[in-house]
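Support reply, case 0932

Customer input (verbatim):
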Amino acid sequence: MRYAIYFTPPADDPLTRRASHWLGRDAHTGAMLSQPIIEAFSDALFSELTFDPRRYGFHATMKAPFELTEGVSESEFLAAFEDFAARRQAFTLPSLVLDQLGQFFALVPGAGSPELQGLAADCVTDFDRFRAPLDEADIIRRRPERLSQTERSNLMTWGYPYVLDAFRFHMTLTGPVDREDQPAMRAAIEAHFDGLLDQPRAIDALAIYVEPVRGSPFQLHHIVSLTGSATRKTA
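Our regenerated output:
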């Protein structure tokens, strides 16, 4: 069993519903959904291009998937997660916009947000005590030879390369898209999400997703609202 800390809008949010339809699966319920018909892509190709984000569900990663370390129970982890959320204040991003991360398409903030960067950093550091160390296969899977020095250090220290200063909030919509197909994919995404982007987006909850077996679809397990002060407890 692996756990991950994600941001995702509520199940009934129009963005969640539209994104779940795009991906072909609702991670809140586990239901498989029919995907939109995209004229520029065959059904089979479109399904293939959305395979990875469909498995993970519509989300932004705050702490990447990890197994619980030995001696820690799920109930302890959930209790700490609820306490964490109770001490964080909700905030609002000015907008989400469509962007490309290399060959991938994703929704990203329309402007920088210190609150978002701080929340993500706290998720990484505060919950690392619950994370089992990576095994050799996990490290190899991340291809450390292709990472920068900072990213390699993050991988070994925090279990994931793209954290802290290397973190970029993104809600993935595709796998890698060939260059010649990228204009058509951009147009399809813009049409599908018309009216839902370029508007304020509340960051008012965090969710725990679980992967019951390696390679299986991630499922929503627990979601909590950010209800308290952003000031952290001190010893």
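We compared this against your earlier run and they match. Two observations from our side: The CA atoms of residues 52 and 178 lie 15 Å apart. The domain at 2-225 is CATH 3.90.1140.10 (Cyclic Phosphodiesterase; Chain: A,). Please reopen the case if you see a mismatch on your end.
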